[in-house]
Amino acid sequence: MAVPVASRLRGLLPLLLTLPLAGQVPAGSWTLAAAPDLTAVIERATASMNFLTRPIARSRLKKTNEVHPRLRIEHPGSEITIQYDDLQPQHMPADGSPVPWKREDGEAFVISARTGPEGLVQTYKAEDGERSNAFRVDPATGLLTVTVTVRSGRLPGPVVYSLSYRPSSP
């Protein structure tokens, strides 16, 4: 006996509701809910480096991995804008095209944003490495997880950690 289509769909519905939508941009305002101890993350990432390069790597990682208490993501048409705290907004084409950008301290980067199966991914590229922020909303909890990955030929391996944000009012 064949199972009616409605019964089969009803059984799949809970599973479908837990899957994030591919290419979804988590637009809105977000407030930090949880963050790891970044000093410990950086210490672990640089532990195997020699005593000359370790302090330089630690300093650079601390500078480029600040935890921001607030962020805002907008997706007006063909652009994605991400603003951390009260810093200057970062405007990127939604098609993933790279654009030049300067941080407040004058350091130059090439940044980009794209959407895909993993959600929204923002990438910073500098002379000495790359950082990506993968933004994904958990439909069950409504929390935004930002998975940060830092890569550099000067590091023993990638540095990976996650931040959690909850929706907030603008």
Main beta-sheet annotation = 10 strands, antiparallel
CATH homologous superfamily?
Calycin beta-barrel core domain
Query: Count the strands?
Result: 10
Name of the level-1 CATH class: Mainly Beta
Helix content: 10-25%
Domain module tally: 1
Provide structural commentary.
The structure is a single chain. The protein is an alpha+beta fold. The protein contains three helices and ten strands, in the order αβααβββββββββ. The protein has a ten-stranded antiparallel beta sheet. The longest helix has 14 residues, at 5-18. It starts with a helix and ends with a strand. The model is unreliable at 8-22 (pLDDT under 50).
What labels would you give this structure?
alpha+beta; Lipocalin; 3 helices; 170 residues; ten-stranded antiparallel β-sheet
What's the structural blueprint in terms of helices and strands?
Elements: H1 5-18, E1 28-34, H2 38-46, H3 54-64, E2 70-74, E3 79-84, E4 90-93, E5 99-102, E6 108-116, E7 119-126, E8 129-137, E9 144-151, E10 159-168
Antiparallel strand pairs: 1-2, 1-10, 2-3, 3-4, 5-6, 6-7, 7-8, 8-9, 9-10
Quick recap of the structure?
The protein has 170 residues and is α+β, with helices and mostly antiparallel strands.
